[in-house]
Amino acid sequence: MNPYRIETPGVVSFSGGRTSGFMLRQILDAYDGELPEDLLVTFQNTGLEHAATYRFIHEVETRWGVPIKWLEYALDDEREPTVVVTDHDRASRNGEPFDLLIGKKGYLPNPVSRICTVQLKMRTQQRYLRSLPAFADGWTSAVGLRYDEPRRALRLTGDTSLENPVAPMYHAKHTEEDVLAFWRDCDFDLDLPLAGNMAGNCVGCFLKSQYKLEVLAQEMPEYFEWWIQAERKASETADAGAVFRQDRPSYANLMKQVREQGQLFSEDAGDTISCFCTD
Ligand code: SF4
To answer: How many structural domains compose the chain?
Structure first.
């Protein structure tokens, strides 16, 4: 049985990275290039991705002819979380869904309370699927975890009993090497600046290593303005939870440091925690 033939109704979580893009291509091929009506592809936008990621997602949907649902966290008239469907041209580019979440919760996400990955990514997808009659009794959720990520792939659990998460790349034994080889041979690719996936997901994500954030702040300071402002606004309204990390300098101080002294970290000690915001 081809692990890329996902049981339906189902959803493919596309993060806008190479790994989940590879997985999507394998799933498309397993269905001879056209997905069944009840197998959807979603991308949950935080508004804080690199411009190259948005371009890449748009290239995937246009070049491969696969409809991708661009979803965003929003608040309804009662200020309860809801979901809006958008597209490449209208999608938020300045953290608007993230701002709504912080306003709703009254504090910033942090490594212990990763409300951004839960609400902006996981629950936003769930809210959308729950609104569809075909998904009322549950769905299969294909997540881009590879064979070389066994701990994460084998520990996959659904966030709700309606969701049955699967890792087809793990079962097909596809590794990072396969992913990179595929994109090397493809006629388009994700053109993020800097090595690997350093600028992937939310560019300034607080779960990235200090080394990565220093490099990113130096190379693309414009992507850090939102993070600096989010901490500034939070400090004006909250006693606690006014920074993303208690154990690190604020984003304003990070920026000041790289401007005045350059990078203090010369080696990447690795990201602190992995989350649903996979590649
Ligand atoms: S990439 Fe980081 S900041 Fe963005 S939603 Fe995921 S955990 Fe939150």
So the answer is: 2
Letter for the amino acid at 233?
K
Ligand 1, atom 7, residue with closest C-alpha: 117
State the average pLDDT for the chain: 93
Same domain, 134 and 221: no
- Residue 87 CA, chain-centre distance (Å), reads 16
Tell me if 272 is assigned to some domain: no
Tens digit of each residue's pLDDT (9 = 90 or more) over 237-278: 865 568 999 999 999 999 999 999 887 777 777 766 655 677
Task: State the closest ligand 1 atom to the C-alpha of 277, by its place in the atom list counted from 1.
Answer: 6
Q: Are residues 146 and 242 in the same domain?
A: no
At 188-229, the pLDDT tens digits run 999 999 887 899 999 999 999 999 999 999 999 999 999 999
The residue contributing the CA closest to ligand 1 atom 4 is 202
Backbone φ and ψ of 210, nearest 5°: -60, -40
H helices present in 31-123, as ranges: 51-63, 96-105, 115
